[in-house]
Design a protein that fits this description.
Length: 173
């Protein structure tokens, strides 16, 4: 879904589109899938150089749990507003922003890719650590089983190096 910057007028332009079954690779280790997401948007012109795009994103995504590496679904409901500017002085940092949470982007080309914006928004929304449930037990470092499904009996011996030093010290006494 793309809109031409020049075609956005003062009168609000409304529309919606769908993204489904799309896997986004974030980096070498992480990815997420947009199962089915509906996006409704509103675009309008602020002035010659600036347009505003608001997007409402609703739907379901599939994530991979950081703890147990199993896939799980999450319902999302996100709203964003981005100002796209053609004002070159914005790049030089001459435009000072009063509202720090306002997202302003310099537009390189002539079109705005709304789908790209949705993907970026979802990507930013996903925290570094995201787990399938609140107290996901993760994978056992000894036998490798998913401890949510099969609690194993492996004993993880934790030796605190400071305790070791203390033991040595007490033995000398
Ligand atoms: Zn998990
Ligand atoms: Zn185990």
């Amino acid at each position: 879904m793309q809109i031409e910057f020049a075609k956005i007028e003062e009168k609000i332009l409304k529309g919606n589109f769908n993204i489904s079954n799309e896997t986004i690779v974030q980096n070498k280790y992480e990815s997420f899938t947009i199962n089915n997401v509906n996006v409704s948007f509103r675009a309008y012109r602020i002035d010659k150089n600036d347009v505003s795009i608001k997007e409402k994103i609703n739907g379901e995504i599939t994530l991979i749990c950081t703890n147990c590496l199993e896939k799980y679904n999450e319902t999302i409901e996100l709203t964003t507003e981005t100002i796209f500017t053609k004002n070159k002085s914005f790049l030089k940092g001459e435009v000072t922003l009063t509202e720090t949470d306002l997202d302003i982007q310099y537009l390189e080309g002539e079109t705005i890719d709304l789908k790209d914006e949705v993907i970026k928004t979802i990507d930013l929304y996903i925290p570094m650590r995201h787990t399938c449930r609140e107290n996901c037990k993760g994978i056992c470092p000894i036998c490798g089983t998913n401890r949510n499904i099969n609690p194993c009996n492996c004993r993880i011996e934790r030796i605190d190096p400071r305790m070791e030093k203390l033991k040595e010290f007490l033995n000398k006494e």
